[in-house]
C-alpha cells in the first residue's frame, strides 16, 4: 500500500472524503488509504463560486470530494453548467478544455479535470476583467495589464492537457 505525506501549515484547509479539516498548527499528514482529497488553494468555497467557470469548478469539486450522497447531483450540475458555458462562449479553447475536463472527471481523473477548469477560470477572469485568484472585479486600468500577462503565459490546449 502506498502512502502520501503532506506538510500542512497553520490555517491550511483540506477536504477529505467530504469532511473539511482546518489545521491549527504546522503538521504532517499521512494518508495511508485511498481517499478523495483536495487541499489549500484547490478548495473553492460556495461563496467564491461567483462566475460560470468558477461554478463549474465548484460542481466538479463537490462531485469529487463532496459527501457521498451529494456527488451524483454535483456531477449532473457540472454537466449542465458546462453545456451552458459552451453554448454561451465564443472561445473554442474554453469549449475544448471543458469537454476534456468532463471526460477526465468521468474517468476518475479528478486532479487533471480540475486543473483544466482552472485554466478556463483564468481565461474567463481575463475576458471579464476579474482577479484570476478571487474572481473579484479588478480596478479600472488593471484589466489591460493582467490580460496582456495572461495572453503571454496562457497555455495552448495541447499544453494545458499535457502539463
Structure, explained:
- The chain is α+β, with helices and mostly antiparallel strands.
- The protein is built from 6 helices and 5 strands.
- It has a 3-stranded antiparallel beta sheet with strand order 3-2-5, with helices on one face. Strands 1-4 form a two-stranded antiparallel ribbon.
- The model has no long low-confidence stretch (mean pLDDT 85).
Helical content band: 40-55%
Q: What class do helices, strands and sheet pairing give?
A: alpha+beta
- The DSSP helix count reads 6
Average of pLDDT: 85
Radius of gyration, in angstroms, nearest whole number: 17 Å
Précis, in short:
Helices cover 53% and strands 13% of the residues. The protein is built from six helices and five strands; from the N terminus they run E-E-E-E-E-H-H-H-H-H-H. Strands 3-2-5 form a three-stranded antiparallel sheet, with helices on one face. A two-stranded antiparallel sheet has the order 1-4.
Element layout with pairings:
Layout: E1 4-8, E2 13-16, E3 19-22, E4 27-31, E5 37-39, H1 52-65, H2 68-88, H3 92-106, H4 110-128, H5 142-153, H6 157-162
Antiparallel strand pairs: 1-4, 2-3, 2-5
What tags apply to this protein structure?
163 residues, alpha+beta, three-stranded antiparallel beta sheet, two-stranded antiparallel sheet, 13% strand, globular
